[in-house]
Amino acid sequence: MRRVKLALALTMGEPAGIGPDITLKTWKMRFERDVQPFYVLCDPELLKARAKHLGFKIPIKVVEPEAACDCFDEALPVVPLSGPVQVTPGAPSGTNAALVIESIETAVRHVKEGRASAVVTNPISKKILYDGGFHHPGHTEFLGDLAKTYWDKDVEPIMLLAGPELMAVPLTIHVPFVEVPKLVTKELIVDRCRAINKDMVERFGITSPRIAIAGLNPHAGEGGSMGTEEIETISPAIAQLRSEGIDARGPLPADTMFHSEALDTYDVAVAMYHDQALIPVKTLAFDEAVNVTLGLPYVRTSPDHGTAFSIAGTDKASPNSLMASLRLAAALAQPELV
User: Which residues bind substrate (predicted)?
Assistant: First the structure.
């Protein structure tokens, strides 16, 4: 297996969740699953304690990021945080919020400094971070602000969910469904699809990306009889994109654009709202889906699942999505690895 030149920076995530569990499991399976070298930004004592709790014998080595690739086969490389983490599996506490945030910030800074090839983030609990003073709507928005901090770039981060068969982008994310129609504008569709097209070409190596755009209403409005957003907003946006040379298609009825034969007709789907994108991705690839943030000056991926407090520390958590996240991050950071 060809390896990344610089290790991937893996964040701690919420320490009371399954992040430590799947991190340890992933390293245990590094040879059989061809896991790319990574290091964890974490309290090493947390990982030692969780490994003991799970009955795993895993050597852990404190390193500088640049040394992670060299020791990865023999030990799990860890770059310590500024303080200890006090945690019980399944029992989150706001006292660790600052260290969770520090782990994310440091991973991004390491990429900027040329010490890591990409950022892979373990799941966080937004509620716990809010209790600790976190002021961002979510992980994705925070990562966009870090692009401003370290690259001095104003960006609009975009959530892409990627599975083996389907890549999909929700235009609106964590908002009540009743607000979606007024948020979906021609400008939003055009701006997001331009950015998606750019990253499909530059990051994913797709020369002429085919972008399938879903309708908002049942049957894509059926000629205006079930809503007019397709006529008044979505179709004009598609016409604008096509005039710019972007292969945008639609608006397509969402109930028929995700079956097996339809998937072969496009490279990435653009959905109007959260569940319209996430339901098909998770149905097709629940255990392997990856969350990718487009529009950033660095590569960031994440498992497409949450903290799963109810199974933390029980050895029930699957590491498959984290492994897929590491694999995709490496491929996006170094396309020659594909």
Answer: 139-140, 282, 291, 300
